[in-house]
Write a structure and sequence with these properties.
5-stranded antiparallel beta sheet, 6 domains, 20 helices, Phenylalanyl-tRNA Synthetase, Chain B, domain 3, alpha+beta, Phenylalanyl-tRNA Synthetase, Chain B, domain 1, OB fold (Dihydrolipoamide Acetyltransferase, E2P)
């Protein structure tokens, strides 16, 4: 919510700087998020009188003006249509800079000299009006600074209200808080009705509330003979500073009073109401209604409607209808001031996506006792600013009047809860300053009756919060509760997540966190078959967008989307990973099945080398190496890679299953070209890793025992085997590792080329032989080495490569 300090000063005396006031409000629970100057930066702008003006000889819409600036007469070229002889307006001489950043200088416009600018309100940063130059009050002397002519300098406060404080969604509500904290007196604006003699309002209209639960109070008044036109500058200035666009004096009055009191109002053209009457009812299911924004909307049976004798004229508490809006020919105005059920308004507003200032207040709860006063205030302003005559009386449909409740507050309990040592009279004084009524004071007990505008006060703890606010949160000492920590270790998935994140960060990957909602058609992009688990997605009842229609069954979408955004911004060398849950529909249970997963993605350059920074593109073995490094960092050795069923979205040639103790734990491979093209990932190949964390946790939960380093030396031998291209290196790796004296095996080279057959490849392994019981001699190692070579030949057809 946005309001200005000068507006607050109409209600309470303020003698502190804006920063000090912002701190006071924040420590009271009304966080001031921004302080923005209004009407500042006008130094050098002065009042000037238009002596004469004539048509520009070279432009149809420009005029040549002779202006008295107080320090002499100057010529100014102006395009304003509202020029009048002897008019007082604002003049910016050459050499100053306006709030909108424009530097004023002497120039020629269509061949005529112009020394300075006659300013419109928007050029001064006061409103958004650019229909003509600003008019200053009569009687001011030319040359007088405009900031002395009009009280323009102000400060706008942006206050972040919590949902439980609808009473502060108004200038008067915030002023009440200031008065309570500073001990000043709260003033209320005038709302006296100068009613014209004649028939009462009952002779002209009636109000029927068919749904008293949805509309517990509906007040209405009638003002006749209004003259529609622009609002005075002071009202437009305050509305603009508060973020409200000025429309006309009639509509502006309803918005002004809403900001002033927190009570939304609505003005109907009285003669556009069928049978000149109002009825409040629920909508019919599927009923169509056109709102003020000219949008036709399909209604639900839960929506509350304001109707006339023929049909709907407003969506109660949210927005009026196009068929009853105020327009140029409006002369008689029916003003609505009502109280609606917050839950009903919230449902309608959310379902239709209509977030209005009125709905913002109604869905939080307005003062049911304040509707009549706000109605009187608005009718008084309509009479003053639009020249309307107030019809005697008002209609007030109020079947169940407000009944205040009494809330007991224990003094000792409050001090224990807040960690304070406040006396009973201090607490009672705090509550009285907030307009709460004290109906009883006994030893250690205060009986409190909250006012109708404090809809948030229901329990004793709510009153404790009021005491804390008035004492000031900054004056309450911060203490930790005296509790003993449970000493329970973190769950296994939390400990595993920390280790995985550390490892992935060490490999140069950055963690991303994406929404759990994805498009429903993502499995189609991946080419998933009809029976794929990826299609067992849980749909959302009310998705925010079609791009977030279902809950994800894979982390791949978020990673691909993140890569696409980065690539679109010129970042092509990416290493990303995400740790999170995926969700699967299960017809046998109410809630979906959830599984923790890890996914990583790499694309672009993997590394650079050489003095010229030559890049090497990421490939399958980089992704596989990261996966191996991750598994080994978790203490897992019993893993392997195998060709199997290619998961949807991956290239069938460069994809492998990840096996942990014989169980499929995930996949590593290249993203298929059609998928990469669908996300516009560019020409670089994309490689991904997906791991199922429950399988990983089962394997990682095994007890790891310490093995001492052996005292005996190792013997290293290199072995180069010539095999068919179709033989996987992991198969040979396994044959070598099976021997007892083999401590480790590492593939150090792969060769395919002219020196071997077209269907062959040469694999070189470095083998470490070691015994924990003795030092191995050359003959013993040679025997095992020959045995390995023979076994490879029998199992794979491989042979020792010569040369």
């Amino acid at each position: 919510m946005r309001l200005t300090i000068n507006w607050l000063k109409d209600f309470v005396d303020i003698d502190m700087e804006p920063e000090e006031l912002a701190h006071l409000l924040t420590m009271t629970g009304l966080e001031v998020e921004e302080i923005q100057p209004c009407g500042h930066g006008l130094e050098g702008v002065v009042a000037a009188r238009v002596i004469s003006f004539e048509k520009h000889p070279n432009a149809d819409r420009l005029s040549l003006c002779r202006v008295d600036t107080g320090g002499g007469e100057v010529d100014v070229v102006c395009g304003a249509p509202n020029l009048v002889k002897d008019m007082l307006t604002a003049y910016a001489p050459p050499g100053i800079q306006l709030p909108n950043g424009i530097a004023v200088r002497e120039t020629k416009i269509r061949g005529q000299a112009s020394r300075g600018i006659l300013l419109a309100e928007d050029e001064m940063g006061l409103t958004d009006d650019h229909t003509g130059i600003i008019g200053l009050p009569s009687g001011c002397e030319p040359g007088t600074p405009v900031t002395r002519v009009m009280p323009l300098e102000d400060w706008a406060l942006e206050i972040g209200l919590t949902p439980n404080r609808p009473d502060c969604a108004s200038v008067m509500g915030v002023a009440r808080e200031i008065a309570a904290r500073t001990g000043k007196t709260l003033r209320r604006p005038e709302a006296e009705l100068q009613e014209e003699p004649g028939p009462g309002i009952e002779e002209f209209t009636s109000v029927d509330t068919a749904d008293p639960r949805g509309c517990p109070r509906y007040s209405a008044g009638l003002v006749r003979g209004v003259n529609l036109g622009p609002s005075p500058f002071w009202m437009r200035y305050r509305l603009h500073a508060s973020g409200i666009r000025s429309i006309s004096n009639v509509v502006d009055v309803t918005n002004y009073v809403m900001l002033e009191t927190g009570q939304p109002l609505h003005a109907f053209d009285f003669h556009r109401l069928g049978e000149n009457r109002i009825m409040v009812r629920r909508a019919r299911e599927g009923e169509m209604f056109t709102t003020l924004d000219n949008q036709s909307r399909r209604l639900a049976a839960s929506d509350l409607m304001i109707c006339d004798g023929k049909g709907s004229v407003a969506l109660a508490g949210v927005m009026g209808g196009l068929n009853s809006e105020i327009y140029e020919e409006t002369r008689d105005v029916l003003v609505e001031s009502a109280c609606f059920d917050p839950l009903t308004i919230r449902k309608t507003s959310r379902r239709l996506g209509l977030q209005t200032e009125a709905a913002y207040r109604f869905e939080r709860g307005v003062d049911i006792e304040g509707t009549v006063w706000a109605l009187g205030r608005s009718m008084s302003l309509l009479s003053l600013l639009a020249g309307g005559k107030i019809v005697p009386g008002i209609i007030d449909n109020y079947p169940r009047p407000y009944s205040p409740r009494t809330i007991p507050l224990r003094v000792g309990k409050t001090n224990d809860f807040l960690g304070t040592n406040l006396k009973e009279e201090t607490m009672a004084g705090f509550l009285r300053s907030l307009s709460l009524e004290i109906v009883g004071e006994e030893q250690d007990l205060i009986e409190v009756v909250p006012p109708s505008f404090r809809v948030d006060l229901e329990r004793e703890v709510d009153l404790m919060e009021e005491v804390a606010r008035m004492e000031g949160y900054d004056r309450i000492q911060v203490t930790l509760p005296a509790i003993r920590p449970e000493g329970e270790p973190d769950p296994p998935e939390v400990r595993l997540a920390a280790r995985v994140r550390d490892a992935m960060a060490g490999f140069g990957f950055s963690e991303v966190i994406n929404f759990s909602f994805v498009p429903a058609e993502f499995p189609d992009v991946l080419g998933a078959p009809a029976d794929s688990p990826l299609r067992q997605a849980v749909g959302l009842l009310k998705p925010l967008t079609i791009e977030q229609a279902v809950m994800r069954t894979t982390l791949l979408h978020g990673l691909l989307q993140s890569a696409a955004v980065n690539i679109a911004h010129g970042e092509r060398n990416l290493r990303l990973f995400e740790w999170g849950k995926v969700f699967f529909r299960d017809e046998s249970r109410e809630l979906p099945r959830e599984r923790l997963c890890l996914a990583a993605l790499a694309t672009g350059a993997w590394s650079s080398k050489g003095i010229y920074g030559e890049e090497r593109a990421a490939d399958f073995f980089d992704a596989k190496g990261v996966l191996e490094g991750l598994l080994e960092s978790l203490g897992l050795r019993e893993y392997s890679f195998a060709r199997g069923v290619t998961p949807p979205g991956y290239d069938p040639v460069l994809t492998a299953e990840v096996l942990l103790s014989g169980k499929i734990a995930g996949f590593v491979g290249e993203i298929a070209s059609p998928v990469a093209e669908a996300f516009d990932l560019g020409p670089d190949k994309v490689f991904a890793v997906e791991l199922d964390m429950p399988v990983l946790m089962d394997a990682a939960s095994a007890v790891r025992a310490y093995e001492p380093i052996t005292r005996y030396p190792a013997v290293w031998r290199d072995l180069t085997i010539l095999v068919h291209k179709g033989v996987e290196s992991s198969r040979i790796h396994g044959l070598i590792s099976d021997e007892d004296l083999v401590e480790s095996v590492e593939l150090i080279d792969l060769y395919q080329g002219e020196r071997v057959g077209p269907s062959e490849k040469a694999l070189t392994y470095r083998i470490c032989y070691r015994s924990r019981e003795r030092t191995l001699d050359r003959q013993e190692v040679g025997t095992v080495h020959e045995k390995i070579l023979k076994k490879i030949g029998e199992e794979t057809g491989g042979k020792l490569r010569d040369g």
